[in-house]
Design goal:
Layout: E1 6-9, E2 14-17, H1 21-28, E3 32-34, H2 37-40, H3 43-46, H4 52-60, E4 65-67, H5 70-74, H6 77-83
Parallel strand pairs: 1-4
Antiparallel strand pairs: 1-2, 3-4
Protein name: 11975_t:CDS:1
Length: 85
């Protein structure tokens, strides 16, 4: 039996099932799925790989995520400031 993959919803900060109805509903409502949040944010280009703290930060952000649409992000500065989107 395989464990279902989980994706982080940046709006609610909860994990959702990649194959579940919530994931499909969010996709229909304009949310965007990214396989690697750190890569989407272009963080690997700005990192100094000799600093352990920066590498730990990068690995903490290396997970799949659901990004809300722009119209939601405009009203939620707590999201775009925290994630630099």
């Amino acid at each position: 039996m395989e464990t279902p993959q989980k994706v982080l919803n940046l709006l609610t900060k909860r994990e959702i099932d990649l194959n579940g109805s919530t994931f499909r509903r969010l996709m229909r409502n304009g949310f965007r799925y990214v396989k690697d949040l750190a890569e989407f944010l272009k963080l690997p280009d700005a990192m100094d790989y000799y600093y352990i703290e920066q590498m730990e930060f990068l690995s903490d952000l290396s997970y799949p995520a659901m990004i809300p649409p722009i119209d939601i992000m405009e009203n939620r500065p707590d999201i775009y400031r925290k994630w630099s989107i």
